[in-house]
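Weekly modeling sync, notes
Attendees: S.R. (lead), two postdocs, one rotation student

Agenda item 3: backlog of single-chain predictions. S.R. asked that every request posted to the team notebook include the full sequence so nobody has to chase files. The rotation student volunteered to paste the first one in as an example of the format we agreed on. Action items at the bottom.

Example entry:
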Amino acid sequence: MRSLLPGAAAGLMQLMHPGIGAGVTEHSAFFDAPFDRIHRSVPQIWATILAPDGVTRARTIRDLHRAIGGRDEHARRYHALEPETFWWAHATFTWEIFKAAETFHPGTLTAEDHEQMYAETVTWYSRYGVSMRPVPADYAAFQSKFWHVCAKTLELTPAAARALEIAKHGSETITILPVGGPRLDRAGRLVIERPLRLLAFGCLPPIVRQRFDIPWSPLDQAQFAALALANRQGYRMMPTGINHWALRSMLRYIGAQTRRNRYQPAA
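Predicted structure, as returned to the notebook:
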């Protein structure tokens, strides 16, 4: 479950990529229902790892992106299956796994752990059946390339600007929870908006916060550190089997509730 906690930060960095931000803007109802994209996508993406037919599911996800292309607001061409663009979406998930392990897990990763985990994320990426050309050879190369994209390629796309606005100020008109109706959604918003902001901004690489003037005070850092500590200590008391069951059950439930609303490319 902890590997989902940096997910909002990963999503922000996806939207900051020019090609992904443009695709989300032009081929989804992101500005009307930004959280719907998360609810529809996350169960499908995790199924590429957890489901027995994960490889088949990964190819289906790839094929959904075949028609996603065009020109962005600066008239630059983009396509979802352009190798560097498709890799960046996965790179944020790779980063998310490491960020979760390093921030919310009580243990410490060794150098061998880093290389093994990175190799596993490469195997995960290979399931999509797209070009492996952009994939760095090892974890050190991945870190270097990831930092370079954060420093040079990411920009404040319209989709990223909207997501940052919601994260900073909230929105009474946007549904956060995929089920339960307006009353439950309002209650959920009161409970999770502040922690979600701390997680989204606190997990971001400092260079991203600095480049895009994302507010982050010493008090924010202290509260984020306390939240991370609470997670590390709390999960010490949760049996691994229950942790895995909770993740799978949640993903199955959200997947079932959102299946009818999944993206369907134009004929």
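Discussion: group reviewed the output briefly. The CA atoms of residues 102 and 109 lie 7 Å apart.
Action items: rotation student to repeat for the remaining queue; S.R. to check formatting next week.
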